[in-house]
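Dataset card, provenance and construction

Sequences and ligand SMILES were collected as paired inputs. For each pair, a complete structure of the chain with the small molecule in place was predicted and serialized as structure tokens. The example below shows a pair involving zinc ion. Curators did not alter the output after generation; any descriptive sentences attached to a record were derived from the structure itself.
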Amino acid sequence: MWITEHRVVSMSSFPEILADRFRRFKHRHYLPNAEQYEELAAYGQDPEAMIISCSDSRVDPETIFSAMPGELFVVRNVANLVPPYETGGKFHGVSSAIKFAVLNLRVKHLIVMGHSGCGGVKAALDQSAAIQTESRFISRWMSMLDEARLSVLAAHQMSPQAEKLSALEKECVKTAIKNLRTFPFVSEREEKGRLSLHGAYFDIGNGTLSVLNHSRNEFFPL
Ligand SMILES: [Zn+2]
């Protein structure tokens, strides 16, 4: 074939902007840190923390925590949720990642990070996911917040919608932590002091990160 490899790639539909960004990453980040990458490739990863965060493009954990490769084990999904422990069903993407992080990587910290303006939480609050997506995927996923939604609505009857949303976004983090504790290997390690669970909430508009104080059950800004 006379066509060059580069030409084959450039004729594909891979977004050019991402190809450019990758070349920039390779030049500015990878090459200056090549030794570290080689070490990670040779010896594997040994992250101290796992972060469960939303898929929302504005709340990237590696960016927010200025992480280098190998430092954070990350799972992202709609509304940073964790399903309760159960062994039935077929595919458990989030649960597999948690198990791998806790039992194999032996992370010391499990952090659930919520955020302001969360579309998934808003859909749960409005109960509009099924209408918006014409799909049961999101509405079923967000049904994990049913209990939290009812308690937020009861506690904030007179509040504006934005306040209810913010309250439910924070309750969502607490729900994920509560569900994390239903995993036997998580609760056992937490009880033995080998694993800490944390809640965090990132406000996109003002760049504040608030952290959950477990004993007061409230978030406080860092
Ligand atoms: Zn979100």
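Derived descriptions for this record:
DSSP finds eleven helices and six strands in the chain.
Residues 54, 56, 79, 115, 118-120 surround zinc ion (CB under 6 Å).
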